[in-house]
Amino acid sequence: MPGTPALSPRRAAKLKAKKYREAERLFLAEGAAVLEEAPSRPLQVFDGVEQVRRVSTLKTPAGPVGLFPFVDVAAAVLLSSVRCVVLLHGVQDPGNVGTAIRSAHAFGAGVALSRGSADLYNPKTVRATMGSIFHTPVTREVETIDFLAEAGRAGFGLIAAVPEDGSMPGSLPRKRLVLCIGAEGSGLPEDIVRACEMRVSIPSLAASLNASVAASILLYEAYTRVLT
Q1: I need a surface site. Which of 39, 109, 113, 114 has the fewest CB within 10 A?
Q2: Is the dihedral of CA 118, 122, 123, 127 positive or negative?
Q3: Is position 196 within any domain?
Q4: Residue 86 has pLDDT above 70, yes or no
Q5: The domain boundary residue, chosen from 33, 54, 69
Q6: HSE-up of 88 (CA within 13 Å, CB side)?
Q7: Rounded to an integer, what distance in angstroms lies between the CA atom of residue 142 and that of residue 66?
Q8: Max intra-chain CA distance, the chain
Q9: pTM for this model (two decimals)
């Protein structure tokens, strides 16, 4: 973003709040390991002790903090760039969202975040991606039913993850897929399950799996079908 004026630490610290991130279309990424994952240099780096303390959201700051422009993509771009998408519906925990993005990166997939899911640019989400936010196509604030319809028209198979009575993950079809995963506890609403063509359940001795674990398992299963 050439020509972007430098932000003072005080102004950059406001980016901890979503309304300021949306107004500026900028976000903060913290820690040397995360910054090293970025394919291009940050617009600005806060690396002085006092600067880092001002803009960091951690009690013990993890190192330099970089300023970046938003990196999310439109739904059409997401669907044209990957074979598999994990759609997180109503997953409000930033750690789960960030970890799912990291797993999507590992297995060559993209991510769609429904309205009501944790914000992609929440500092906790960004940290949990461990830099994968810069390598994984992500669409945010989607209306789930509308996104599924668009994906279906683009030739994707639509898969709903349900707690029980679904097919085994090993039965996923060998085609482009959207894997729909709800929050632990509430799961997917029935109208979203009905909009999908297949239900999948992950065998588990636990009562439920959190969203990032379920996403990782299903992404791996889908990825093995590409390899074989």
Answers
A1: 39
A2: positive
A3: yes
A4: yes
A5: 69
A6: 37
A7: 27
A8: 55
A9: 0.92
